[in-house]
Amino acid sequence: MHIISDIEETRKLIKDLRYKYGIIGFVPTMGALHQGHESLLVKAKQECDAVIVSIFVNPVQFNPGEDFDKYPRQLEKDSEICFKNRISLIFAPSIQQMYPEGLNNTLTKIVPPQIYQDKLCGKFRKDHFNGVATVVLKLFNIIQPDKAYFGQKDAQQLIIIKKVVRDLNIPVEIIGCPIIREPDGLAMSSRNTYLSFESRQKALSIYKSLCRVKELYESGIKDPQSAVDEAKKALHNDVIIDYFECLNAESLFSVEKLKDKTLVAIAAKVDQIRLIDNIIL
Ligand code: AMP
């Protein structure tokens, strides 16, 4: 397994991998890998001949005051996980390598349509999805994968990446993968490492509240607001909601009635730590 930070070297190696093996799969990550990420690696390995993982904490998708500086970085442990999963190459560039001419005002950016951005996380994290779309397109241009794997955990990100790829005719197939959870239901996330034992107990109520929406839907409640209002009662008192919404899982438009395939998404802060989760009815 190669671990490379240089863009040109990465391109050369991938050219060889493509020639030798064939279909190239790609899993973009910010590192601090857990079983959620690992499920993407496993799926990519099943479907592709060689798999590349990128590890890059992308400054352009963080706003001032967010956790860019304290985001967990653990390349050595991540490498072991990738090695175990027979990954061919880890691309782990520096900020300087990815953004040699600087950030923000001097950078050409991909700007996904506002109607995809002005809801859910986009409403609370200004320009976040411009940063995500920009780095993902840069990574696609560097790696040129045949297939790329993204988690349903970041539902809005997955929808936006699919939209950008369609709109700009990027020759890559985007594959969404289900959310992997801890045995007690908490969605796995690199940010879970910030949670104290007590905060983690409170955080469990997030998934419980999503399951409550599902229960209510299955018991015949079709009005999204009534279902969400009732489900909020399952949340621990210290869980502060950013949003708790029911949307169309492809267009992200609000739904008037709950139906199968509706996306129910929540973001909430538990003792200052922001967590996101969702289910599809
Ligand atoms: P991140 O490192 O947080 O940028 O995540 C990299 C990829 O892993 C994204 O496509 C995420 O949606 C995906 N991912 C993160 N957590 C999970 C999870 N619990 N289950 C499935 N995929 C996940």
Description:
This protein is of the alpha/beta class and 281 residues long. It is 39% helix and 20% strand. It is built from ten helices and nine strands. The protein has helices at residues 7-20, 35-47, 75-84, 95-98, 114-117, 120-124, 128-143, 155-167, 197-218, 224-231, and strands at residues 2-4, 24-29, 50-55, 89-91, 147-151, 173-177, 239-248, 262-270, 273-280. The strands form two sheets. Strands 1-4-3-2-5-6 form a six-stranded parallel sheet, sandwiched between helices. Strand 3 (50-55), helix 3 (75-84) and strand 4 (89-91) form a beta-alpha-beta unit. It is globular and about 55 Å long. Adenosine monophosphate (AMP) is lined by residues 29-30, 36-37, 39-40, 150-151, 153-154, 177, 179-180, 187-190.
Tell me the structural class: alpha/beta
Instruction: Report the end-to-end length measured between terminal Cα atoms.
Output: 40 Å
From the alpha carbons, calculate the radius of gyration and give it in angstroms: 19 Å
Biggest sheet layout:
6 strands, parallel
Compact overview of the structure:
The protein has helices at residues 7-20, 35-47, 75-84, 95-98, 114-117, 120-124, 128-143, 155-167, 197-218, 224-231, and strands spanning 2-4, 24-29, 50-55, 89-91, 147-151, 173-177, 239-248, 262-270, 273-280.
